[in-house]
């Protein structure tokens, strides 16, 4: 089922609801390899494109990604959900779980970003290079920079092409949009999160994300941190069969 509202989204399956929040390198299509395994495991899957990604247009007024997600959950009748969130979507997942803790039964954070994190040298250099390429109008080179930075050694050419299409599309949508619209930043405290958490990081990722995961694993209740020795920043697309087994096992252990 495909729906239309502020966020483009789709729903599949029946059972306890799992909401999938994408990385800002991708859009909701990054979760294609997870949809059927989650449905087969007895879950109802909901995924959406954040504003300026995939099929969701850029905002024309101040907005909150976390509020958008909660509004979507209300629309699809999902009172309590497991949240699976990657990279930049991970920060949104943390905000949802902290501000609406009674609604989140489990939290999976994959290569997650974190509010207030001070970027290390490599991450800072990446951001500066990406900004320079986009300012010069070289979307192709900016896309290639993202692929070389974020995909690990097990990503094949088909995966590189798929991620490249998502990243390039996001750049095109965002560059054509209103750059003056600012997101609404609401302070939240991860100490307010009550859901059991699984933190997943990749050994081939930039070091920032392993540090963030280790820090959160020490601060969240009933948290476990798993480092995948084969993975880059996007393990769910790099080796989905391995990631899916880890994901379903975690979701089945709780009351997700």
Automatic annotation (TrEMBL):
InterPro entries assigned to the protein according to its UniProt record, in alphabetical order = AB_hydrolase_1, AB_hydrolase_fold, AB_hydrolase_sf, Epox_hydrolase-like
Please give the Gene Ontology molecular function terms for this protein.
Answer: hydrolase activity
- What GO cellular-component annotations does this UniProt entry give? membrane
Q: Which residues form the AB hydrolase-1 domain?
A: 18-245
SUPFAM superfamilies the record matches: alpha/beta-Hydrolases
The transmembrane residues are none
Q: Can you name this protein?
A: Hydrolase
């Amino acid at each position: 089922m495909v729906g239309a509202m502020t966020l483009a989204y789709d729903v599949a399956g029946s059972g306890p609801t799992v909401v999938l929040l994408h990385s800002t390198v991708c859009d909701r299509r990054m979760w294609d390899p997870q949809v059927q395994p989650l449905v087969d495991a007895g879950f109802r899957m909901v995924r959406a494109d954040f504003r300026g990604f995939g099929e969701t247009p850029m905002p024309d007024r101040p907005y909150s990604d976390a509020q958008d997600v909660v509004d979507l959950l209300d629309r699809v009748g999902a009172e309590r959900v497991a949240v699976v969130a990657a990279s930049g979507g991970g920060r949104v997942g943390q905000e949802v779980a902290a501000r609406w803790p009674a609604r989140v039964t489990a939290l999976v954070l994959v290569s997650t970003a974190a509010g207030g994190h001070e970027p290390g040298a490599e991450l800072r250099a990446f951001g500066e290079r990406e900004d320079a390429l986009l300012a010069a109008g070289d979307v192709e080179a900016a896309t290639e920079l993202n692929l070389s930075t974020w995909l690990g050694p097990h990503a094949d050419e088909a995966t590189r092409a798929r991620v490249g299409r998502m990243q390039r599309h996001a750049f095109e949508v965002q560059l054509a949009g209103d750059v003056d619209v600012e997101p609404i930043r609401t302070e939240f405290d991860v100490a307010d999160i009550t859901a059991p958490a699984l933190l997943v990081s990749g050994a081939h990722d930039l070091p920032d994300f392993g540090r963030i995961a280790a820090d959160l694993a020490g601060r969240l209740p009933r948290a476990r941190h798993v480092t995948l020795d084969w993975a880059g920043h996007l393990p769910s697309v790099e080796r989905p069969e391995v990631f899916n087994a880890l994901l379903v096992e975690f979701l089945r252990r709780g009351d997700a």
